[in-house]
Amino acid sequence: MEKNRLEAFSDGVIAIIITIMVLELKVPHAPGLAGLEPLLPVFLSYLLSFIYVGIYWNNHHHLFHSTRHVTGGILWANLHLLFWLSLFPFTTAWVGENHLVPMPTAVYGFVLLMAAIAYYILQHTIIAQQGRDSLLAKAIGNDWKGKISPLCYFLAIPLAFVSPWISHGLFVFVALIWLVPDRRIERALMKREMD
How far apart are CA 100 and CA 32, in angstroms? Predict the structure, then answer.
C-alpha cells in the first residue's frame, strides 16, 4: 500500500491535537498584563506539549520519508501512536489547571511513556516489514535518545508523588534532547540518493 493516506491522516490528527490544546488557553477577563498571570501554568503546560507534539510530528515525517510502503501492521501501529498523542490535550489541560499536583503530573508522564512506546513499536514494525538492512534500520542505529526517553518518563511517574518539579524537569530534559535535530534518517536518505 502507498503511504500517502497514512501521512495525510496522521498530519490531520496532529493538527487537530494542537488545535484542541490551544483552545484550553482562555482569554483573560482583565485587560492588563496582570490578567495573564493566572494563565501562566496553563500556557507553560501547553508550550511543553506543543513541543512534544512537534517533535513527534517531525520524527514521524522522517520515519515515513524513509518508508516506501505500508502494511496493515504499520497502519495499526500508527493508529496506536495517534491514540496516545490524542490524549495530550487532556493531560496538558489537567496539568495546567492543577499547578504541579502529583496525580496529573504522573498521568502526563504515563501518556508520554506510552507515546514513546507506541513510537518504538511503529518504528520496529516498519523495520520488520522493510528488513534489517533497510535505510531506516541503518539510520536508527544505537538510538540512545529512544532509549533514554522512556526511562526518564518511567522515573518521572513515581517521582511525581515525591516532587512534581523533578518530574517536570525530566519532561523538559527529554524535550530538550529531542529538540536538537536528529539527522540520522536525513543523512541515510542523502547517502541513498548519492549511491
Answer: 26
* Helical H segments across 36-163, by residue range: 40-65, 72-86, 88-97, 102-130, 135-140, 144-159
Q: CA–CA separation, 2 vs 136, rounded Å?
A: 17
Helix axes 184-194, 40-65, angle to 10 degrees: 20
pLDDT tens digits along 143-166: 888 899 999 999 999 999 999 999
Closest to 175 measured CA to CA, from 102, 116, 87, 104: 116
Give the rounded distance of the alpha carbon of 177 from its chain centre: 13
- CA separation for the pair 60, 65 (Å, rounded): 8
Q: Is the pTM of this model over 0.85?
A: yes
